[in-house]
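To the wet lab folks,

You asked to see what we're planning to order before we commit. Fair enough. Below is the target structure as tokens, and below that is the sequence we designed to fit it. If anything looks off to you, flag it before the synthesis order goes out.
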């Protein structure tokens, strides 16, 4: 994953800056007093096998049983950087949902989307720690278990795919900006990087991709989360091929035809396709961004992602 860092340097400098002095004192897991309009670290939030840090943003107008959005940072980033450099908190202020910002502590600052322990339900890596954060919000903020969502860019988009694959019983929908399919980055040698996946050399049938997701939680027969994916056509860090492979995977997982039922252009350089439904909450939605490399998100993408997930 360290190879993501040079490609992201310009993006981080332009769009994602770490907030200085934005944090209050850590909140122990026993606390239940609502936090208003500031980013706060929560400690002792539960099972956390990979030593993630948890930050939450609770707007002043939070409802009695709010939705929760997990916003996963890019490689080399952090929860506070994602908070300060994105629109999620301001939109939470408008619509009353909680944002959880997981933060990686390993040296690469990349999420584990590669190891066998990450690619399984109730495993022992980052996904398990993130789900502990969600459950803490449900226990201490009375968050609605039927309104839990995930999103992220780059490494965070990969984690979004992994969370929806590992925990279909927790997440209802997700939006992955410049990611890869669940299981595409899998390694067994301890490496965080899979060059074949990043270069678009791993292609599978829809059934094969779907089986990787289903194998992550054997025996699960409940509903599957809806998925939205975004990708720039000129992405050379995570190949544009991966965009098509994500579409194959999630249309198969959700049991819908790979032929889009709607194609339109929200912006002149954006091509949106919907699968299994024509409305805002279609089972699968994909947006291809013409002429853009590994530099998402652009203006307007976050509101569209939140609309897909049902948060606005």
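Sequence we intend to order:
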């Amino acid at each position: 994953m360290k190879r993501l860092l040079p490609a992201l340097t310009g993006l981080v400098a332009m769009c994602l800056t770490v907030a200085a002095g934005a944090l209050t004192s850590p909140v122990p897991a026993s606390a239940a007093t609502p936090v208003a309009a500031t980013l706060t670290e929560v400690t002792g939030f539960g099972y956390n096998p990979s030593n993630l840090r948890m930050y939450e943003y609770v707007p002043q107008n939070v409802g009695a049983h709010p939705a929760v959005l997990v916003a996963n940072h890019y490689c080399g980033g952090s929860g506070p950087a994602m908070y300060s450099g994105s629109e999620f908190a301001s939109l939470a202020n408008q619509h009353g949902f909680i944002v959880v910002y997981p933060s990686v502590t390993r040296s690469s600052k990349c999420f584990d989307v590669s190891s066998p322990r990450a690619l399984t339900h109730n495993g022992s890596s980052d996904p398990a720690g993130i789900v502990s954060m969600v459950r803490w919000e449900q226990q201490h903020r009375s968050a609605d278990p039927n309104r839990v969502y995930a999103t992220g860019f780059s490494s965070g988009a990969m984690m979004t795919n992994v969370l929806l694959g590992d925990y279909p019983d927790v997440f209802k929908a997700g939006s992955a900006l410049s990611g890869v399919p669940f299981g595409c980055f899998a390694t067994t040698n301890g490496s965080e990087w899979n060059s074949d996946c990043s270069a678009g050399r791993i292609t599978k049938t829809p059934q094969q991709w779907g089986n990787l997701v289903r194998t992550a939680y054997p025996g699960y027969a409940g509903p599957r989360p809806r998925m939205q994916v975004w990708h720039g056509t000129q992405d050379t860090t995570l190949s544009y091929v991966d965009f098509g492979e994500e579409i194959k995977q999630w249309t198969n997982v959700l049991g819908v035809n790979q032929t889009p039922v709607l194609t339109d252009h929200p912006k002149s350089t954006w091509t949106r396709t919907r699968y299994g439904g024509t409305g805002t909450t279609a089972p699968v939605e994909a947006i291809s961004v013409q002429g853009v490399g590994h530099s998402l998100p652009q203006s307007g993408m976050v509101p569209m992602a939140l609309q897909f997930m049902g948060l606005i």
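Structural context that might help your review: The chain has one domain: 4-309. The longest helix spans residues 126-140.

Thanks,
Computational group
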